[in-house]
Amino acid sequence: MTQAKRPTGEDSRSRNKKVGAIARWLLPSTGSYCLLIALFLLVNNSWRFLIDSDTGWHIRAGELILETHAVPQRDVFSHTMAGREWFAWEWLTDVMMAALHHQWGLAGVVGGAFLVLLASYAALYRMALRRGADPMITLAVTIFAVLCGIVHWLARPHLVSIALMVAWYAAVESFRRDRSRWIYLLPLLIALWANLHGAFVVTFIILAVYAAGEWAEFAARGECGAASMWRVLRTYAVVGALSAVAALATPYGFKLYGHLWRYLTDAKLLSTISEFQSPDFHMLDGKLIEILLLLAAIAAANAIRQRRFVEVGLLILWGHMTLRSERHVTLAVVILAPIIAEQFSALTAEFADRATAGMGRAARVLRTARGWYRETMGIDRQLTGAFAAAAVFVFVIAVMGSGLAEKILSPHFSPNRFPVAAADFILRTKPEDQLQGRLYGKMYSSDQFGGYLIYRLYPQFKVFVDGRSDFYRRGAVLDDYDKIATVKPQWSELLDKYDIQWMTLRRDEPLALIALMSGRWRSVYEDSVAQILIRKPVQPDQAMDSQTNNVK
Q1: Rounded CA gap, 270 and 262, in Å?
Q2: Bridge partners, residue 24, by sequence
Q3: Residue 42 in contact with residue 117, Cβ under 8 Å?
Q4: Which residues of the chain have pLDDT under 50?
Q5: Which of 35, 285, 320, 339 is most buried when burial is the number of CB atoms within 10 A of its CB?
């Protein structure tokens, strides 16, 4: 296929300046500074990784798998859906999180997330360079990609999909540009990915975009129908088909496809999950996405000039997906950043060619500056940055097991966000005191607290609901939960229906206030974040009134 001109190719002088073998590995490259900036941003935003309680149930699920040597098929964490079929479709990531937690506690979980993201961003930078992008432009675009993804820096399985998408994307691009045969290994990658996170399904759509884009490029070159075109399209089809079969290599087989389809097409459910909502362009993360889409539009316009229709298709696809759901930005930047870096490098080189074409003094000065820049970047391209990268990764691993973890990794669930002190109160209450205070039986709590309470209280207590919305949607629990949480008229009857004996609630939430006013509940614990309510013993006259009402 026609390749874009390398905008930062070295001239004869820079090619003659070879860097020694030792220096190539020891000296930092522009990519090294990119990695250091990413590490700086990770450390300054480490508090974000444990602001979602789902991390808690992922860890406990992984521990359960390690203990039983089996992937769970039925729910064990809730009392509302106990024993119902559950798809733990991120089970392998759960196992890795549990292993890290066993070795280093929450510091291991956050540190592991650091390592995944650092590896992803380093590979993303190298991918853009291999496409001929200018190192400085690539540095700026990669850091911008890092900033766009900060809002979804959570210690959850979706981070693994970022790294896997980089690897998958690199293999497909290698085939497109060099007709490399690495693409035939992608079914093996998909087999692994399907056990780690469900985002693998989007690769089938991307492959279709590649096939359509390559067909358009062949047509634009007047080669439509050529044997080479059919070989290319056949390769995409074969890889896609083999990948679809490889994704069946999970504990759930074909059922996983059905589950993901029901989950991702359930508009009612997705409308209640904040991370699946469209970006809010009044917020900082929304403004970053707005800039990302603007850069993508400019890149798409230049790609059309070059008749590079694969890039155009990818930019349209991921622009649409990002507008539809802010959650998609984490993978969108993986696809869009190399394209933006490549296209803006081409535009910059085109502008520089025009600026240095004249014979005036300004043009001569610019040519000299450009020659120096090319020479410098030619040297930079020879540097691997391996020593700096190794130092960064060793540093993160060392921190995970040291006293610096508390300061650098923020390895704890925030007591200002989760019922940390309330859980301490529950755990230090003796069984006989629990019976006396009626802190036993079935508990109600919000889904925001659910994952954390599984982390702290399982298996002693089970939750009413947690962040596994795809699971709870299969019954009436989510609808009933919404009625209870929003204190609909039937809230009390629903608590009776589920035999709720006590509740761990956010302090001063409407349900807590109404429950106390009803006279049927009393508070046994309260702090600035949470409060625990227990049922009052039913008096004989109240029981008779209840029976009379039931008869009526």
Answers
A1: 11
A2: none
A3: yes
A4: 1-15, 435, 543-544, 546-552
A5: 339
Task: Name which of 276, 251, 275, 255 is nearest 265 in CA terms.
Answer: 276
Map residue 524 onto helix, strand or coil: strand
Instruction: Please count the residues of the chain.
Output: 552
Asked if omega into 459 is within 30° of 0 (cis), the reply is yes
Cα separation of 315 and 300, whole Å?
A: 7
* The two structure tokens encoding residue 395: 């540093």
The sign of the dihedral angle between the CA atoms of 8, 13, 14, 16 is: positive
Contacts of 36 (CB under 8 A, 6+ apart): 388, 392
Q: How far is CA 174 from the centre of its chain?
A: 25
- pLDDT, one tens digit per residue, over 493-547 is 999 999 999 999 999 899 999 999 999 999 999 999 999 999 988 665 554 454 4
Alpha-carbon distances of 128 from 125, 147, 233, 336, rounded to whole Å: 5, 17, 24, 10
Both tokens assigned to 272: 């209640």
Rounded CA separation 361/356 (Å): 10
Q: How far apart are CA 444 and CA 56, in angstroms?
A: 17
Q: Are the CB atoms for 368 and 352 separated by under 8 Å? A: no
Q: What are phi and psi of 505, to 5 degrees?
A: -120, 160
Token representation of residue 171: 């293999």
- SS3 call for 6: coil
Phi first, then psi, for residue 445 (nearest 5°) are -155, 170
Q: Residue 345 in contact with residue 137, Cβ under 8 Å? A: yes
CA 167 to CA 409: how far, in whole Å?
A: 26
Tokens representing residue 91 in the block: 């089970």
- Rounded to 5 degrees, what are φ and ψ at 506? -70, 140
Tokens of 415: 């007591």
DSSP collapsed to 3 states, 48-88: HHHCCCHHHHHHHHHHHHHHHCCCCCECCCECCCCCCECCC
* Per-residue pLDDT, 547: 45
Token pair belonging to 359: 């014979």
Tokens for 220, please give them.
């634009």
Q: How many helices (H) and strands (E) does the chain have?
A: 27, 4
Q: What is the pTM of this model?
A: 0.91
